[in-house]
Every structure is written in structure tokens, then in C-alpha cells.
Design a protein that fits this description.
The chain is α/β, with parallel strands linked by helices and 309 residues long. Helices cover 36% and strands 17% of the residues. It contains 10 helices and 9 strands. Strands 1-3-2-4-9-8-5-6-7 form a 9-stranded parallel sheet, with helices on both faces. Strand 6, helix 7 and strand 7 form a beta-alpha-beta unit. It is globular. The protein starts with 18 loop residues before the first helix and ends in a 6-residue tail after the last helix.
């Protein structure tokens, strides 16, 4: 909790509070709220030959969130970090899944700060364990499918792992990837997306003037599932807006579009979990990336509606 510090405007009372003044440590028997959990890991990025440093993402993103203005939302809790220090990514995934499952079963929205995109497999596993009878829809804002085949888990394999786990469990794999860059995904990856019956939308189809069509595709996907897991790989944003990632985007999707769609999901009443991944503070410029990522997390929390039952 020591990172939650910032400006205090005492003269203006409670209406002038900021995030650092309202976030509480997560404990048992608290009212349903938003459980923020860090996944301090970039083992998957290292294995995927990316630029390591995302392990420091959770702390940097908390610092960026701390001084943002607080507006009424669900209670905010900090559940600490799951750490991968020994290179054992599989074990770290299991620890992340256990923490996420516990938070969701306690009635909280799971908000995870990565970490590389290997975060997604452990996060999904926790959601699936907490909601075994629900049709889970995965919405991934990402320049990459992350459907790679590999001998071990990496930041490029999480959705291939989830697809395989769904098949093993007899569950349908409901996956929508929005912001896909044709320049960053080989034909083999597009073939894999077709094989697992994924849906996608290219980055070139997500300009602000195409927002109506993008919204319609997203809403149709939401309508066909019971609950939604939103994962935002920050490399979906243009490099000028998000320099602090392993693979900066040469084109990308404007942050205004990503925020709008994230708010739509948060307000749907079906969102049970969200994460922001791949933030690497080693490559940030004057905290531009941290501020952009924090803005997206803030927008999700500000727009969140309780889960429909």
C-alpha cells in the first residue's frame, strides 16, 4: 500500500479525494467492489524474445493511478501482487488463478495489472474456476492474436492455451481479438485463428469514423456470452500514445476508441474481469505510457455496472 500516495486537497473535503485516498487493502467480508491485483512477471516476454521489464508494471501503474481524481464507483481494493521470480511460469499461473478465483467468488471484479500477456492464461483460469457453468467471452484489444504454438507458455501463447483448455473441459472457446495488425501476424496465425473459430477486427477497421461498425461487432459478441473477460494488451495503442511496451505499434488503435469500447464493456453488466498487460516502464517517456494505461483502467472502473444476475 506504500505506493498509494499523492496530492491531498483537504480544504475541499471528500469531494476532492483521489484514488490513493480511497483504495483499501483487500480482506475478507468486504462489500463487493473492484479487486486490483498485480502480476509481476515478464517470464513469458523473455521466452517470446521480447523486451523484458513488464515485471515492474504493477508498481508503476499503481503510482499512475494513485493521483487520479476519484469519482463514485464500486469500492476499490488492492489485493497485492502475484510474483514470478524463479522462472516457473506454470506455478505463477496457478497462484494467479487461485487469487483471481477467490476474488471473483467474493463478488469482486478482478482487475489485474500485468506483467506480460502471459498474464491472460492465469487470469482466465481463475475466471473459469470461479464460473464453471458460464459461457466466458474473451475480448482482447491487441495488435496480436497471441495464438502461437510453442513447447512452453510465453506471452504469445495464452489464447492457444485457453483454447486447448476449453477443448479439454468441453467448453466453447469464445474469443474476439480487436485491433489485429496484419503486419504483426503471419498467415499461420490467421489460419490458427480460423481453426479455433476466433473472431477479429483489424486495426485498419477501428478508426474513429468506423466506430459504429466496431461497436456493433462488439455488442453482438457480448450478447452471445454469459460473462466477459476483457484483456488490453497496451501495444494495441499507437506507439506515440504507448511507447512503453515490448512491441510498439506502427499504426495502432486510438486510445479514444479503446476507452470508448472499454466503457461499453464495463457498462454491459457482464464484465467480471479485466487486465492491462505488457506495460514496460523501462521504455516509458515522461510517464506518457503509464498515464495512458492508468486512464484506461480508470475508465473501466468509472463505467462499471454490477454483474447482471
Amino acid at each position: 500500500m506504500t505506493v498509494w500516495t499523492g496530492r491531498i486537497d483537504t480544504a475541499e473535503g471528500d469531494a476532492a479525494r483521489r484514488w490513493h485516498q480511497v483504495v483499501q487493502p483487500l480482506s475478507t467480508n468486504q462489500p463487493a467492489g473492484i479487486a486490483l491485483l498485480g502480476f509481476a512477471c515478464d517470464e513469458g516476454v523473455r521466452r517470446n524474445q521480447g523486451r523484458v521489464g513488464a515485471v515492474a508494471g504493477p508498481v508503476a501503474l499503481r503510482k499512475a493511478l494513485a493521483n487520479l481524481a476519484y469519482h463514485p464507483t464500486l469500492p476499490l481494493y488492492d489485493a497485492g501482487d502475484v510474483v514470478c521470480e524463479d522462472g516457473d511460469l506454470d506455478a505463477a499461473h496457478q497462484r494467479l488463478a487461485a487469487a483471481v478465483s477467490q476474488n471473483i467468488q467474493a463478488g469482486h471484479l478482478s482487475l489485474v495489472l500485468g506483467g506480460g500477456h502471459e498474464t491472460a492464461f492465469g487470469h482466465w483460469l481463475g475466471i473459469a474456476n470461479a464460473s464453471p457453468s458460464q459461457r466466458i467471452g474473451i475480448v482482447n484489444f491487441d495488435a496480436h492474436f497471441d495464438l502461437r504454438e510453442a513447447s512452453e507458455a510465453t506471452s504469445g501463447t495464452p489464447f492457444a492455451q485457453i483454447a486447448a483448455a476449453c477443448a479439454k473441459r468441453g467448453q466453447s472457446f469464445q474469443y474476439l481479438c480487436m485491433g489485429v495488425a496484419e503486419t504483426a501476424n503471419t498467415e499461420a496465425l490467421f489460419n490458427k485463428a480460423r481453426q479455433v473459430q476466433a473472431s477479429w477486427r483489424l486495426d485498419t477497421e477501428m478508426t474513429p469514423w468506423q466506430l459504429t461498425e466496431t461497436e456493433a461487432q462488439l455488442q453482438a459478441f457480448i450478447d452471445q456470452v454469459d460473462v466477459v473477460y476483457l484483456t488490453i494488451d497496451l501495444d494495441v495503442l499507437p506507439a506515440a500514445q504507448m511507447p512503453a511496451v515490448s512491441a510498439p505499434a506502427g499504426f495502432g488503435v486510438e486510445i479514444s476508441v479503446i476507452e470508448h469500447l472499454s466503457r461499453l464493456l464495463a457498462a454491459s453488466g457482464k464484465l467480471v474481469a479485466a487486465d492491462l498487460v505488457e506495460f514496460n516502464p523501462l521504455f516509458d517517456t515522461d510517464s506518457h505510457g503509464a498515464k495512458a494505461a492508468a486512464r484506461l483502467a480508470w475508465a473501466i472502473c468509472r463505467s462499471l455496472k454490477p454483474l447482471k444476475t
